Amino acid sequence: MGKKIFDTFFAITGLLLFGAIILVFFIAICITTGSNGIFTQTRIGQYGKRFTIFKLRSMTNVNGVAQVTPLGRFLRKYKIDELPQLYNILIGNMSFVGPRPDLPGYYDKLQGDARELLKLKPGLTGPASLKYANEEQLLAAVKNPLLYNDTVLFPDKVRINLNYQKNRTLCLDIKLILYTIINKKPEEEYLQ
Length: 192
Description:
The chain is of the alpha+beta class. Helix content is 48%, strand content 15%. Strands 1-2 form a two-stranded antiparallel ribbon. The two termini are 27 Å apart. The mean pLDDT is 92.
């Protein structure tokens, strides 16, 4: 119950503080890309239920190829593209801290003890997302990004998130949020 109150209070606060910023970037994206400034996608949430995630659009299609826009690079660098997820937190299908919501075919396919992760709401941040804050660069540097993600990154994220699930407290959540704000990787104890 404490986590729900924390999430609701700070989601409202965040939307009040950053609502104007979201609106300005939304308009800028609409103008520069000629498309809707909000990107929506189906993700897997708590108990394996599907939900729609909201982000500021950072990519556009050029001749059928998805490319990050110049504005999108800026939004991604400073995680501004994630701000609309404050709405996801407010309506209750996300939390501030938890495993990052993934596409269908990952968390919903977990087996055995790993399925315990489905009890958690997905988060805006978490220990695994902090460890792999440079995931795009890691995937760009390997020959087969999908294979690398499926055999190396995703299993490690599951392991880290299971550890978080076993040891989570409001104090730990606040620490992880602060690490996210200052863009710092947490101590190894949170990544075991």
